[in-house]
Amino acid sequence: MSRRQVGSTRRFVDTGSFPFAGSLHSKSRSSPLLSIGLILVGAALLICLAYGGSGIFGGNKIAVSKVEGDFLCTSEVQRAIPLLKKAYGDSMRKVLHVGPDTCSVVSTLLQEEETEAWGVEPYDIEDADASCKGLVRKGLVRVADIKFPLPYRPKSFSLVVVSDALDYLSPKYLNKTLPDLARVSSEGIVVFTGFPGRQRAKVAELSKFGRPAKMRSSSWWIRFFLQMSLEENESAGKKFEQAASKKSYEPNCQIFHLKSYH
Ligand SMILES: *[C@@H]1O[C@H](CO)[C@@H](O)[C@H](O)[C@H]1NC(C)=O
Ligand SMILES: *[C@@H]1O[C@H](CO)[C@@H](O)[C@H](O)[C@H]1NC(C)=O
User: Fold this and answer.
1) Mutate to test the pocket of ligand 2, among 83, 86, 88 (most ligand atoms within 8 A of CB)
2) Which of 88, 108, 185, 209 has the most neighbouring CB atoms within 10 Å?
3) Whether residue 86 is found in the same domain as residue 62
4) Which of 147, 166, 173, 175 to mutate to test the pocket of ligand 1 (most atoms within 8 A of CB)?
């Protein structure tokens, strides 16, 4: 996956360099003092390439480090919102997102028509920006340790979406947290988890999360969901797949569609 990212970076740079080459030609032809002109143009070109290059690379480096970092699945949730709308339609009216960087997801969801959104941030948000602090002040986003019961009544939300949070829990805590996510939802739970072997938390982040993320295989999760009596919502999954293939969307995370308890 990170390899594909690098590939797309390269294509970006290739196409990006054509305009610079073009401007070099036109400028050198119109310059009366050819040699000085050439030197200036050469310098300008170098600066352009350095800036353009670092801009392009810099931009992609953020994407790549996100891909390899911890919030991969939270950014995946953002990307998947239009597909989730297709799959869940009316069930998207009251959404709870649980996961790091939840402010970004909540803000995006709030832009959708007919969607109310709340968020639970499992880690700290000391470095939150003003808009995130605003969401916390309004009570839309809460900081809560998801090892303990969530501070909401049963079936408070139509849909609960969780990302980058369950990977950090041992089975002992998962046994409590997952049923609790089901408890506060009425029409479904969507779980975004990392693919095994694809990403790991940066060393500096380990202390923050308490333990390293453990990326489990899809068969591990499916077995776990069954133990918790959480069934897959096949119809939602199918609708999601259909919408995804129409948009050539390939998720960077595993996505599970589960039914709430009845
Ligand atoms: C989690 O719950 C399942 C089923 O209730 C049980 O079989 C399993 O031993 C539990 N695991 C842990 C680590 O508590
Ligand atoms: C399954 O998902 C659909 C949305 O595609 C939803 O309307 C339905 O309520 C869900 N079924 C259950 C049993 O949660």
Assistant:
1) 88
2) 185
3) no
4) 175
68, 86, 110 - which closes a domain: 68
At position 96, the amino acid (one-letter code) is: L
Block residue for tokens 């939300």: 157
Check: CB of residue 258 under 8 Å from CB of residue 190: yes
Domain limits at 207?
72-258
CB atoms within 10 A of CB 157: 26
What is the helix (H) or strand (E) element at residue 163, kind and residue range?
A: strand 159-163
Please name which of 76, 8, 68 lies closest in space to residue 244, comparing C-alpha atoms: 76
Residues 162 and 253: their CA atoms lie apart, in Å, by 12
Provide the sign of the torsion angle of the four alpha carbons 44, 45, 50, 55, taken in this order: positive
CA–CA gap between residue 190 and residue 238 (Å, rounded): 13
Residues 37, 213 contacting (CB under 8 angstroms): no
Q: For residue range 207-236, what is the model confidence (pLDDT) as tens digits? A: 455 667 788 999 999 999 999 999 999 999
pLDDT tens per residue, range 17-33: 334 443 444 444 555 55
On whether the CB atoms of residues 244 and 83 are closer than 8 A, the answer is yes
54 and 88 co-located in one domain: no
pTM, full prediction: 0.73
Which of 106, 257, 120 lies closest to 190 in space, CA to CA?
257
